[in-house]
C-alpha cells in the first residue's frame, strides 16, 4: 500500500473527492485540519484557543475557494485523476491555499483599516471590541492590531503545516515546493508594494499593475495552477501556459475587483461602497482616470479624484461624484477593455497546449466567472 493510500483510508473525515463536490470537499478538509490545530492551541492556554477559534471562523465562514479550485483543475488538466490513490492528498494539499488567503486578508484588512469583511467585523476590529468589552488596560486598537498580526502569521504557518501533512508522495511534495515558495514571497512582495505606493502617492498605471500582478494574480490563479501542475508532474510547456493564463486572468480578476470596490453593491460585495477610495488604494481604474483627466485638460476633475483617494471621511455623495467622473473620463470603459483583452490572451494560452478534459473546459468557465463576477 502506498503512503497516499494509507492516508486515503486511515485519516478521520476521509472521503474521496470528485469534481462536482470540490468546494464542499475543501471545506471539510479545512474543518478537519483546523479542529486538530485548535485542540493544540487549547493545550497552550484556553485564551489562545479562543483566539484561534476566531481564525477558524474567519476561514470557514465565507470565501469562494477560488485558489484551491484553480489548483485542482491545474492538477486535473495535467493528468490527475479523481480515482487516483493520491487524490485525497492532493485535495488536502491544495486546501492549504485557503490559509494563505486568510493570512493575506487579515493583514490586508489591518493595513487598510477596513472595518468589515464579508459583512462581518474584520479581525482587528473584533479583537479591539473584545478588549473594550473586557475592560482591559491599554489601547483597544493596538490590541486588535497585535491579534490580527499574530493570527495572520498563524494562518501562514498552518498553511505550511497542512501542505506538508497532506500525504503527498515525497516526489510530488518536492515538486510542489518551488511554486509554493514563490507564491508566498510574491504575495508578501505585492502587499509591500501596495503599502509603498499608497504612501508615496504613486498613481501610475505601472505601479497599479505591479501590485495587481504580485498581490493578486500570482497567488490567486497563477501559482495555484502551477502548484497543481507540479504535483501532477506536468511538463514545462503546460506549466508555462498555465502561468500565462493565470497571470492574465489573475490581473483581470483584480481589475474586476477594483471596479466592484467603487461601483459594487455593498449587499453583494460585503464591503461598504467606496471603501477602496477611502483606503487610498492605487488601482488601475484611478490611474486611467488621472491619465484621461490630464489628457483632456480637466484639472478640476483630476484634483477631485486625487483628493478623494485616501480620504477616510469621503461620504456617499463624494463617492457618487467620483463614480460619475470615472465614467465621464472613460476610465471605466478602459478597464472593461483591459479585462476583455487579458481574458482573450489567457484563453489563447490555454488553447495552445493539450489539457485533459474536463479541466480544459472548466478553466475556460472559471476565466469567465472570475472576470464577470458581481462580488
The beta-strand count equals 2
Radius of gyration: 21 Å
Order of SSEs, N→C?
A: HHHHHHEEHHHHHHHHHHHH
Count every helix, treating DSSP H or I runs of 4 or more residues as helices. 18
Q: What is the 3D form?
A: flat
Please state the structural category.
Answer: mainly alpha
**Low-confidence residue ranges:** 1-13
Strand content: under 5%
Helical coverage, percent range: over 70%
Distance, first to last CA: 45 Å
Give the rounded overall mean pLDDT.
91
- Major β-sheet annotation: 2 strands, antiparallel
Order of strands across the main sheet: 1-2
Detailed description of the structure:
With 375 residues, the protein is mostly helical. 76% of the residues lie in helices and 1% in strands. The chain contains 18 helices and two strands. It has helices at 3-10, 22-44, 46-60, 66-77, 87-95, 97-112, 123-134, 140-164, 170-200, 205-231, 236-263, 266-269, 275-279, 284-295, 299-308, 316-328, 331-351, 359-372, and strands at 116-117, 120-121. Strand 1 (116-117) and strand 2 form a beta hairpin. Helix 2 (22-44) crosses helix 5 (87-95), helix 9 packs antiparallel against helix 10 (205-231) and helix 11 runs antiparallel to helix 17. The termini are far apart. Mean pLDDT is 91; it is low at 1-13.
Question: What key attributes describe this structure?
Answer:
375 residues, mainly alpha, two-stranded antiparallel ribbon, flat, disordered N terminus
How is this fold's topology laid out?
Elements: H1 3-10, H2 22-44, H3 46-60, H4 66-77, H5 87-95, H6 97-112, E1 116-117, E2 120-121, H7 123-134, H8 140-164, H9 170-200, H10 205-231, H11 236-263, H12 266-269, H13 275-279, H14 284-295, H15 299-308, H16 316-328, H17 331-351, H18 359-372
Antiparallel strand pairs: 1-2
